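[job 0417] fold request received: TetR/AcrR family transcriptional regulator
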Amino acid sequence: MAKNPAPDATRRSEKSRRAIYDAALALVGEVGYPKTTVEGIAARAGVGKQTIYRWWPSKAAVLLEAFLDLATRTAEEAGQEPYAIPDTGDLAADLKAVLRATVDELLDPRFEVPARALTAEGVVNEPLGREFVTKLLEPQLQLYVDRLRAAQDAGAVRPDVDPRIALELFVSPLAQRWLQRTGPISYDYTDTLVDYALHGIGPQTPRSR
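[job 0417] inference complete; emitting structure tokens
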């Protein structure tokens, strides 16, 4: 008599992990961060509470990891490398490409709804806000710093420019407009941000007397 194959624990764990990610993001988007609980995530995912605590120490840890996973999946579906800025030698084109991908992400309801909930909570919940910045925002901003430094080495950006400040010329307006809904976000908008920013930080030609 043929024996039944042993259960694949790896596959079962991955299925549970995916269900927990989806449940956490859906729940925080529906009820907000304060009302999202580990118990609620577990119930929605169809797993035991102990399963979540075995993998994560808190609901914040679950949500941050789920968010990173969502960004990775979204990029892969679009055929892009997650958390990467290309270096084709054309700084303007590279920045426009990554900001267009960011626009797609911000307009995707799967990302937008939980992102707004977590961002809003991070403003009043200092520990969560700090963790959100440290684990999610800063690694992405560092990619801009690295790309701008490479552009400095290539002579496309003035050597006296601070890349960490310069990136805010196009990243911060987009974030502000999206968060406060002060206007539409689009490819044209982010392309214009890049054009304006690079006009100010590009190499300066000597003035003729």
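[job 0417] notes: Confidence is low (pLDDT under 50) at residues 1-9. The radius of gyration is 21 Å.
[job 0417] exit 0
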